[in-house]
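User: What would this chain look like folded?
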Amino acid sequence: MAPRAVHGGVANYETGRVQLDRELLVRTLRRPMAKSDITGKRRLKAHNVSHSNIKTNRWQHVNVQRRRIWVPELKRFVSLNVTTRDIRSIDKLGITVYARRYGIDLKRI
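Assistant: Here's the prediction, encoded as structure tokens.
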């Protein structure tokens, strides 16, 4: 009997095994990176420091939120991944000034 395609791989009836598609597996298992679309801020490497001063590696994640932001110049909403600091700056400066500061063209998003 010929192998049959299943989601994520190919089933072989003689052996009873499923051969997984490596690229699909890597794509589905990899966590999406929490990264700001405007500033590019992302997680930082840090240390947990014990009482005996032993340092173990850990990640410091940024607080990234998915937000729909109204852009008056385009007369439409733009969905962006932004950090909470970005949100505060956008409230203070405006989205177009803040995006221009980091060289982001909102028309292309």
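The chain is about 25% helix and 35% strand. If you want, I can go into more detail on any region.
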